[in-house]
Write a structure and sequence with these properties.
By secondary structure, the protein is an alpha/beta fold. The protein folds into 2 domains: 16-55 and 305-435, Aspartate Aminotransferase, domain 1 (Alpha-Beta Complex); 75-299, Aspartate Aminotransferase, domain 2 (3-Layer(aba) Sandwich). It is built from 13 helices and 14 strands. The chain has helices at residues 32-38, 58-76, 86-97, 113-125, 140-148, 165-177, 201-214, 252-256, 268-282, 287-299, 302-327, 353-362, 392-416, and strands at residues 44-45, 108-111, 131-136, 152-159, 162-163, 182-187, 217-221, 245-250, 262-265, 333-334, 342-346, 365-366, 368-369, 382-386. The two termini are 36 Å apart. Bound molecules: 4'-deoxy-4'-aminopyridoxal-5'-phosphate (PMP). Residues 49, 113-115, 139, 188, 193, 221, 223, 250, 252, 257, 262, 436 line the site of 4'-deoxy-4'-aminopyridoxal-5'-phosphate (PMP).
């Protein structure tokens, strides 16, 4: 069939009326186009959350992969179990032990990154219209999953210690008063993406108590837990509640995102459903990448490498915070991450991070505007900065450029009595290069 074109030459989609209703949430952001420009080398990107994989011992990894194919190719290149490799699941227990979790390997389901685990959990639990409680703001591609299963997302405000228990109680009461069903409480307790905040032990206990009392399943997403800058690993909520929590983990930040190996640790009955869902989605997770991870864990000093990553990211975090302190105009605030990849910046009153982005990109610096991290249009005055990928000097230069742009916006606001024009309201959109 010939693809129709408009006069301007844009392709029309002849199947647009055929799509399932659940795909309505799968929209590309207006800022996506800007990121094509932002990925040019002269732009300092504080936008994407890409792990700095160049710090990996690449020669050793190459040896691991080549030995794997030579010696266990018959296994690595074959189909495997829908639940994931049994040896790797044992090793995952060791990785999770740093977070205080003890579990049975049979309750682990290996997935294509923790993103896949998130998708499977929502697929297994949520019908259209079911409510998922999430932090405000929250991980952008989790919002994409909730939207693709037609969930109603309800944001719960955070403070410097993450999700606020008082606000959580209120949100639960309000949702229930409206007659809707809450299926999941999705939380990122450690080194939050995008918030950069961490729940302390007492906060975790309080949130867990609320979830238990209200009978709400807690979905704990923990990709950054091992990347705390003081070397300590926050105790996972799952460590204190095996039945009411599904825990998501990943090797994306501790080894390599490109391997796409993550997992869910679930209550036993739920695990069975997740395995079946995993099989319908992918038959089995990749044997090749699972065994690569397994060999790497068994033969390399993997935790030393985690320490290398921590140090590297801490240096970059420091470069970011020092330059924000030195250069940002008064009225700008930001969170101080104790680990992970991100700081959440709130602009001076009246400024709009979405409207400002084209001017920032013209000044050769990129960030992710805050609205993408909300399902309900909040976040216009905020943005996410990530410090994981650029070298410290580039980060300093990026902040210098950004501070100049914010200054200029403030001048416009002062001169004309109002801030620079706000971008048109847009829906909850996921800027593609920043899904990480
Ligand atoms: N959850 C959060 C909070 C994340 O930041 C990410 C990726 N950046 C993921 C889940 C998914 O990671 P992956 O699929 O690579 O394990």
């Amino acid at each position: 069939m010939e693809t129709p074109r408009t006069a301007a030459g844009t392709r029309l989609d002849p199947w647009v009326d055929a799509y399932a209703a659940r795909t309505r949430g799968l929209t590309a952001s207006q800022v996506r186009a800007l990121f094509a420009v932002a990925s040019r080398p002269e732009v300092v990107s504080l936008a994407g959350g890409m792990p700095f994989v160049s710090a990996l011992p690449l020669d050793q990894l190459a040896d691991t992969v080549s030995r794997l194919i030579r010696e266990r190719g018959h296994q690595a290149l074959q189909y495997g179990s829908g639940q994931g490799d049994p040896v790797l699941r044992e090793q995952i227990l060791e990785v999770m032990s740093y977070t205080g979790i003890t579990a049975h390997p049979d309750d682990i389901v290996v997935t294509a990154g923790s993103q896949m685990a998130l998708d499977l959990v929502v697929r297994v639990f949520c019908d259209p219209g079911d409510v998922v409680l999430v932090e405000a703001p929250t991980y952008v591609t989790a919002l994409g999953v909730f939207s693709s299963y037609q969930c109603d997302v309800v944001h719960v405000p955070m403070d410097d210690e993450g999700l606020r228990p008082d606000a959580l109680r209120q949100a639960i009461a309000a949702v229930r008063a409206s007659g809707r069903t809450i299926k999941l409480l999705y939380t990122i307790p450690s080194f939050h993406n995008p918030g950069g905040v961490t729940q302390g032990p007492a906060r975790r206990t309080e949130i867990l108590e609320i979830a238990r009392r209200e009978g709400i399943l807690l979905l704990e997403d923990d990709p950054y837990g091992l990347l705390g800058f003081d070397g300590s690993v926050p105790r996972a909520i799952r460590a204190d509640e095996p039945e009411g929590v599904i825990y998501l983990g990943t090797f994306s930040k501790t080894i390599a995102a490109g391997l796409r190996v993550g997992w869910a640790l679930a209550p036993h009955g739920v695990r069975e459903k997740l395995v079946l869902a995993n099989e319908t989605a992918t038959l089995c997770p990749s044997q090749y990448t699972q065994l690569t991870v397994s060999e790497y864990l068994a033969t390399q000093p993997w935790f030393d490498q985690v320490t290398v990553f921590r140090e590297l990211y801490r240096e970059r975090r420091d470069a970011l915070l020092e330059s924000l302190d030195a250069l940002m105009p008064a009225g700008t605030t930001w969170t101080v991450p104790a680990g992970g990849f991100y700081s959440w910046v709130t602009l001076p009153e009246g400024l709009d991070a979405t409207a400002m982005l084209p001017r920032a990109v013209a000044a050769l610096v990129a960030y992710v505007p805050g609205v993408g991290f909300y399902a309900d249009g909040q976040g216009r005055d905020s943005l996410r900065l990530s410090y994981c990928y650029p070298e410290p000097d580039r980060i300093r230069e990026g902040v210098r450029r950004l501070a100049g742009v914010v200054e200029a916006e403030l001048e416009v606001a002062e001169t004309f009595g109002s801030p620079a024009p706000r971008a048109d309201r847009e829906g909850p959109a996921s800027p593609r290069p920043d899904q990480a």
